[in-house]
Amino acid sequence: MIKIENLSNRYGSIITANNVSCEFECSEVTVILGGSGSGKSTLLKQMAGLARPNSGRILFEGKEITCLSKKELYEVRKSMGMLFQGAALFNSLNVYDNLAFPLREHTKLSEKVIQTIIKMKLEMVGLRGSEHLMPSQLSGGMTKRVGLARAIIMDPKIVFYDEPTSGLDPISAGVIDKLILDLNRKLGVTSVVVSHDIESAFKIADKVIILFYGNIIASGTPDEIKSSPDAKICQFINGSPDGPIPFSHTDKDFMVDMRSQWK
Ligand SMILES: Nc1ncnc2c1ncn2[C@@H]1O[C@H](COP(=O)(O)OP(=O)(O)OP(=O)(O)O)[C@@H](O)[C@H]1O
Ligand SMILES: [Mg+2]
User: Fold this and answer.
1) Domain chopping of the chain, boundaries
2) Can you give the pTM of this predicted structure?
3) Which helix (H) or strand (E) holds 151?
4) What pLDDT, in 10s, does the model give residues 167-188?
């Protein structure tokens, strides 16, 4: 469904993608894992057409989105949903108006139909009757769930989730994982999930990609990743402080080693 070809991107001296190529299959859940600052959110925003990479191509259903005009992109984005890291709700709007926003912006549906859709989506995320609440009145878990309801409000073909379970208690995280899986298994929604949560990634993923300072260091099924003999991957999935990956990305020897792998 999405194909990334030779994508490179940097902000000054920070490289977020270094000649990245990968594919995201239709109706699959792909989880992108990676350390903090490794370029996951940037890549997700680029895939969702919200930011342009410096070079390379992103194809969505065969259409190159990296060179579309604003108007064309607007059309393509109707079939995409995005749960932002931190949910990105409008603070001055209540839950109802946050959810109504994309529907009012992109469709000519009557307010009655909008009301029904919102009720249905809130029900799906377990927040029935919370239309009147303001974002400041929501807990972290509720905020994520409203963000999720907004991401799926237009029944998208693909949903991008940026850290959907971070900061949540295990039960709330499990609820979100189940929702992602239900949307995928029951409605065939293609899902791209950025996460730090290795346990949840292995639970929901058909495919896992590990991004490390702009490089894909591993890609495969959860079983393939779990049984990889690569020291970097073992360290990453075991969360070990000792190993080839240093805590600080300013570690000079390590960065020289990573750079030697950059094309
Ligand atoms: N618009 C921007 N301008 C300048 N630098 C940016 C911008 N967006 C991201 N960066 C930098 O690019 C790097 C990657 O950021 P990104 O948000 O993609 O990381 P991440 O993998 O999502 O991290 P985290 O797990 O902490 O959310 C960081 O060093 C960040 O400071
Ligand atoms: Mg991020």
Assistant:
1) 2-261
2) 0.89
3) helix 140-151
4) 888 888 888 899 899 989 988 8
